[in-house]
Structures are given as structure tokens and as C-alpha cells.
Amino acid sequence: MKSYIFASLLAAASSVVAAPAPAPMPTPPGIPSASTAKTQLASLTVKAYVDDGGYNRDLFPHWITISGTCNAREYVLKRDGTGVTTDDACRSTSGTWVSPYDGGVWTQASDIDIDHMVPLKNAWVSGANAWTTSKRQQFANDINSPQLWAVTDNVNQSKSDKSPDAWKPPLTSFYCTYAKAWVQVKYTWALTITSAEKSALTSMLNTC
Predict the structure, then answer these.
(1) pLDDT tens digits for 75-128?
(2) Of 186, 180, 188, which Cα lies nearest the Cα of 205?
(3) Domain boundaries in the chain?
(4) Residue 194 has what DSSP assignment?
(5) Tally of CA atoms within 13 A in the half-sphere of 92 that contains its CB
(6) Keyword Signal: yes or no (predicted)?
(7) How far apart are CA 43 and CA 123, in angstroms?
(8) Which of 34, 40, 53, 74 satisfies CB 3.0 to 4.6 Å to 208 for a cystine?
(9) Residue among 131, 144, 166, 153 nearest 61 (CA)
């Protein structure tokens, strides 16, 4: 009887299929350590939010060609997805994307927006209004800092042009990375922050 039970247990164990490993979260380049982000945050110029009314999304040309037929959007989709395949025009035809803001898992590129960590309008009121169009184009297509993220489309739309004092990712576990990335972009591009923005970023960095 014991041998029968043991054999049954072995058979049951052999029939168990391991759950697939979760798709990895995207990791854009240049995310600093928490200590570095705190140092960078302390060095940023604090300035009141003043909307001069001159912002226009077209003043930040995007998505430009990055390599071959791939523009910045398609580049980030390939970089941050898993098993991404593309057609001759570099459009993603299949793959899996995990949105770090909300944990959503998507298999259609149409469900993904490429978010500017620091929104274009926020950049405008933080100093980009004084830039050349060429520099704004570089900012809008910056693949060398943690500025571009593949995220769930409606979550990106909810964020819109809000700074961290007005909007935070649905996943509180992402607060630390979000704040580090936001600070890095502002630091890299010498953009200003508001006092409310600084306070929110400080609180988020304290979750690291």
C-alpha cells in the first residue's frame, strides 16, 4: 500500500507544470542610485510653475529615426519588450510588454504608449521654452537617459503632463524608481522643479 501511495505521489509531482517566469520589467538606461538621486535633487533649482501659454507639442519633434527604419517609439518597444518581432518598417508585430507604472502585461503594441518620464509640457515650463527646437527634439527622443518608458496607454493618458506632486504611478512599489528616473532627467537636462514637486520626490525617494 505504501509503495502504491508513493508511486501515486511521484506521478502527481511529475504532472505539475512550473508556472512561467514573469516577464521582466523594463529598465531604461541611466537610473541612478537613491543616494545619487537625492544629491541631484538637492542641486536642482526650485522655481514656481509659470505657464507662459506658449507650449505646443510640435515644438518637441518626435518620433525621430534612431537606427535604420526604427524611430524612437519602435526603438523603445524593442528595448523594453520581451520576444519582440518587427516588420520591415520596424513596427512591432508581436511581443510582451510589462508596464512598470501599473504592472499591466500586454501583447499588442497598440496597448502601449511611450511615456516621457518628464512630460514635454513640464519640460517647457521648467526651462525648455528657452531651448532651440533642435535641443527640444533631442529631449523628446532621449534614449540615453531614463526618459522614455513603455507603459499602459490609459495610464500614460492619466498621467498627462502632471509632475509627481499631482500624479504618481498606481504601483507604490515603483515610487522609488519613478522618482530616481524623474530626478535624473531633470538633472541631466538642467530643468527646474517646484517646491511641491521637490517635496513629492523626496517622499518617493524615501521609499527606496
Answers:
(1) 999 999 999 999 998 999 999 999 999 999 999 999 999 999 999 999 999 999
(2) 180
(3) 28-205
(4) -
(5) 27
(6) yes
(7) 17
(8) 34
(9) 131
